[in-house]
Design a protein that fits this description.
The longest helix has 23 residues, at 163-185. The protein has helices at 3-11, 88-97, 144-157, 163-185, 194-197, 201-212, 220-226, 231-242, 246-264, 269-275, 281-292, 296-304; strands at 14-24, 28-31, 37-44, 46-50, 57-60, 64-67, 73-76, 101-104, 110-118, 135-137. Strands 8-1-9-3-6-10 form a 6-stranded mixed sheet. A 4-stranded antiparallel sheet has the order 2-7-4-5, with no helix packed on it. The protein is of the alpha+beta class and 305 residues long. The relative contact order is 0.13. The chain is globular, with a radius of gyration of 22 Å.
Length: 305
């Protein structure tokens, strides 16, 4: 079981091109907070990432930085640049027709691909929402990421038949490659995040079993036995990595799976309850109400209403 791939599939973490930013001279702009995560990939020049109350971070050509959903931040040509609000009209125009968003003055010395990754709002497993601070990968740390950026840049420079599909696929590939590089190279930043938990072999093994067989009647004890550790060890490692117990995570994942199926299929509630590990529709409905605030049937009606 590829836990990351499965979580991204269920969470609906899909990428989309925001804008291609071309900037020169003195420039800086605060970006509107968004429910989507933002990946800024600098293809030429230098960009500075600004966070409210934080120290500006230099992001050079070949670097990429992933910013968690809902995080207010700004981008600028310098560490001390005074920044203005987001030019919403210019941004909307660039999003609509694919034209570059130009900041500052000509000639453009910095180019940034601003990509967005949205997660299904009905899914609570925090693949992208539990990132912590910005994740920064430098050009020196990777080769695959930089080659993919070159491919994306070339595709955007010469649009042709299939460009939209190609760009969407490349953007999704960029996220996977970025996560791989970050997990391999930044052990000090991994603690306390869903992504970081994948680097703990005990937690990763437990997650793989839960994701592969969510319908199985897992308990902390049986999951510990399956992963060849003690119950105490599994509970400690799980809480340290994810801030919750194995049982709480199992319930959360089951509710995510059920929510997607209630919305996207016509399966009876009885079938869904068994598929996500509940012995009876009544037990499932009780658990679902605790997690989502309303019964499964009402939840399905609300989303389709």
């Amino acid at each position: 079981m590829d836990v990351l791939a499965e979580a991204l599939r269920i969470s609906g973490a899909r990428g989309g091109l925001g804008v291609v930013l071309k900037a020169g001279g003195t420039w800086g702009q605060w970006l509107d907070s968004s429910p989507a995560a933002a990946l800024h990939v600098v293809s030429r020049g230098t960009m500075w990432l600004h966070l409210p109350g934080g120290k500006p971070r230099e992001v050079r050509a070949g670097d990429a930085v992933l910013v968690a959903p809902g995080t207010a931040h700004g981008i600028a040509g310098g560490s001390g640049t005074a920044m203005g609000p987001c030019d919403r009209k210019a941004t909307d125009r660039a999003l609509t027709d694919g034209s570059p968003l130009r900041l500052g003055s000509a000639p453009a010395r910095t180019e940034v691909l601003v990509l967005r990754y949205e997660q299904d709002p009905e899914v609570s497993t925090p693949v992208l929402t539990f990132l912590g601070g910005p994740l920064h990968v430098t050009g020196r740390e990777n080769t695959q990421l930089s080659k993919t950026v070159e491919l994306l840049t070339a595709e955007l420079a010469q649009p042709q038949i299939g460009t939209t599909a190609a760009v969407n696929s490349i953007v999704d590939l960029l996220l996977i490659q970025f996560i791989r590089v970050w997990l391999a190279r930044h052990p000090e930043q991994r603690a306390g995040s869903w992504l970081g938990a994948l680097r703990d072999p005990v937690v990763r093994d437990a997650l793989a079993r839960v994701h592969a067989r969510p319908e199985h009647p897992w308990t902390t004890a049986s999951l510990a036995t399956a992963t060849a550790v003690s119950r105490t060890t599994l509970s400690r490692r799980f809480r340290s990595a994810l801030g919750q117990t194995p049982g709480a995570y199992l319930t959360q994942w089951r509710m995510d799976l059920a929510s997607v199926r209630l919305r996207d299929t016509d399966e009876p509630v009885e079938s869904i309850s068994g598929a996500v590990g509940y012995a009876s529709p009544h037990a499932f409905s009780r658990a679902f109400r605790r997690a989502r605030g309303i019964p499964p049937g009402a939840y399905r009606s609300r989303l389709r209403g």
